[in-house]
Amino acid sequence: HGACTGFPRTLGQAEALDRICELDLVISLNIPFETLKDRLSARWVHPASGRVYNMDFNPPHVQGIDDLTGEPLVQREDDRPEAVAARLRKYKDAAKPVIELYKSRGILHSFSGTETNKIWPYVYTLLSSKIPPLLSDEEN
């Protein structure tokens, strides 16, 4: 069993995946639109070096300024709030039939929240119930 993260995103991808493996568990993480938009829009870059800052998680020492060069940071077009909102809407439309497909097969498990550390224990419990524990050498 391999694990695919962030995939499949479209029905076409789901059908292609069906041809090569049989899924027995699909996890859907439901994160509020505003949370995703804020997180993605918090990304700023230093174009010359490619250094990426996130205003929430690893902000520059001085707002809008690269730590090493003192040059201005820019926001990529597709990270601007309006572009992020459009991308999220497009993704949601494409993903909806994929979610419905797995729901109809009874293999979809959905989790909602805004913070990984709060969602993960529930995901971990589900996975632990589905995957047999690995036995140590002494137990075999």
Automatic annotation (TrEMBL):
UniProt entry keywords in alphabetical sequence: Kinase, Nucleotide-binding, Transferase
InterPro entries associated with the record: Adenylat/UMP-CMP_kin, Adenylate_kinase_lid-dom, P-loop_NTPase
Domain Adenylate kinase active site lid: 43-78
A Gene Ontology molecular function term of the record: AMP kinase activity
Domain of life: Eukaryota
SUPFAM superfamilies linked: P-loop containing nucleoside triphosphate hydrolases
Record Pfam families: ADK, ADK_lid
Family: Belongs to the adenylate kinase family.
Protein name: KAD4 kinase
Organism: Eurystomus gularis
Lineage summary: Eukaryota, Metazoa, Chordata, Craniata, Vertebrata
